[in-house]
Amino acid sequence: MSRNHRLVHASPEHVWDVLSDGWLYPLWVVGASRLRDADKDWPNVGSQLYHSVGVWPLLLDDSTEVLECTPGRRLLLRARGWPVGAAHVEITVEPAGEDTEIAIREQAVAGPGALIPRLVQDPILKWRNVEALRRLAYIVERRP
């Protein structure tokens, strides 16, 4: 399982506000090119974001569902991105003094992506999530 973390110069509440705004998802998630819709109760368990992956005109419509949520602290998502498959993505938010540490753990769980050996899968997911955390930090630290 790939694990990345980043220190963000903002409060955990501010980080959670960004994570709770499903419409910001394609701004920080690498591969998500647009959001088509978001359930009004995002990020409650069972709620979904309906996004597209890829680059226009080769876009595939898919979704991400909340499997578990501890408000202000943790999200466990099932992110779908066919034809690659689906992944479990855990996002945790921990206070670190006046800052916040955000961690992302991701593992392919279905489809062709799950058949890729971890030795190959983990470095790809690590690179992807380093960029995702960088984008998320930019949003969090610059959002009023």
From TrEMBL:
Pfam families: Polyketide_cyc2. It comes from the Bacteria. This is SRPBCC family protein. It comes from Nocardioides turkmenicus.
